[in-house]
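Progress note, sequence design subtask.
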């Protein structure tokens, strides 16, 4: 197993921010794109000229469904069943994340679908190990 101290610094910086309810990404000096979660280079153009920045946490939920059972990873079994979805962040990146504010039931998901794109706000879900970014929709 890899020593945690050998992880890329961008990843450590991301998780340290997440634990403090801040959502960190890299912004590219070459193309202006955001890379989220942050890495050492731009996911859009490949440039290494990136700089750490904080995201607003604002997003629009495009699509949501409930998880399959069992949860996709043992660390998520405690919170299953849950809803996950695709969101576009205000700053541009598209992410998949757990969605709070809607029940993981077919009727609730149908009603959400019929609402169309829904505003969402990032939150940090504290886990036993690493924190997880989730998004809450307005009810
Ligand atoms: Zn770029």
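Output:
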């Amino acid at each position: 197993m890899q020593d945690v101290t050998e992880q890329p610094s961008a990843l450590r910086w991301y998780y340290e921010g997440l634990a403090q309810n801040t959502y960190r990404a890299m912004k590219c000096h070459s193309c202006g794109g955001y890379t989220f979660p942050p890495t050492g280079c731009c996911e859009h153009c490949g440039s290494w000229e990136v700089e750490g920045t904080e995201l607003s946490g604002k997003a629009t939920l495009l699509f949501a469904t409930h998880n399959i059972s069992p949860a996709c990873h043992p660390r998520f079994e405690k919170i299953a069943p849950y809803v996950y979805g695709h969101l576009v962040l205000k700053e541009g990146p598209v992410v998949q994340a757990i969605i709070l504010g809607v029940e993981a039931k077919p009727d609730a998901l149908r009603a959400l679908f019929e609402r169309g794109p829904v505003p969402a706000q990032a939150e940090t879900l504290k886990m036993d190990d690493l924190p997880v970014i989730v998004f809450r929709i307005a009810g």
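The beta strands are 23-28, 34-35, 50-55, 58-66, 83-89, 94-100, 118-125, 132-137. Work on this subtask will continue into the next period as scheduled.
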